[in-house]
Amino acid sequence: MARPTGRVLALLELLQSGGIRTVAELADRLGVDGRTVRRYVDHLVDLDIPVEAVRGRYGGYRLAPGYRLPPLMLNDDEALAVLLGLVAGRRTGLLTATETAGETAAAKIRRALPERLARRLDAVMESLAFTAPPGESATPETGVLLAVADAVRHRRPVSIRYTARDGRRSERTLHPYGIVTHAGRWYVTGTDPGIGQDRTFRLDRVADARVLPGSFEPPAGLDPAQRVLSGLAKAAYQHEVALRIHGTAEQIRARLPASVASLEEPAPVEGADPHTERWIRVELRAERLDWLPPVLASLDRPFVIERPDELRDLVIALADRFAASARQA
Q: pTM above the 0.70 mark?
């Protein structure tokens, strides 16, 4: 009786995705019983593919750690997803290491594909165009990213050598809570145990990262992405701006996102509609103020400038220009 080669290869693909797969899970995915799964595993072992049996309540099968499977097996959808992901990663600055890493990876995938599928994917890539320009590249070193990610996953302290925006260099210890990508940049957020303060660092400014002995417990309900956005909104810049805007949080966030401004909403009145417009205090920091008057104009909501006076002068000047233009025949 011929071996069901297709299902054996499907089993191999499931094991390739990593982790331990239980017999029940594999049987369900393959549409066979547990005895047949074990027989398929024996077929893979006969082909010198190191499938390991893991005993215990949560046991099952897995590939030996570090084993690399030749050849690369991708169907049409998977191959297109990988190549488009590499293209998108290059354009948004989300690839680590050098820019050529994504190109060489795509070339290796292209060479491993059947010619029929490779030609179809080439047609997609050659006909693809973008309306937005490539993002600014500020990618971290691969070794730094992997070390920090390992520290986050295992809740271990990490030592980093960091270069600040003004060029100052320092060595710091961090309890990292998470890695966040925002606007084409990579950040790590956590607590500096030496000063007991929350800190956020750009990973492309980290020259070296080493996981340290010990462990820590992150705060309950932590949202690393929100911490990064709040940290960016409160970063030290030349101007500190305070406003009161009459509207809803959703209306304000449409022009002043969390990475730009922080909102201080009044306590809601019991029984009141949460979407009712009200006065909301807005604080932000900026290196320049000239971009803010047009943003306030686009909000089209009543506002009061608390500080600085320079912003008030810029808003008045913009209003005068608008009025002068509107009067022209």
A: no
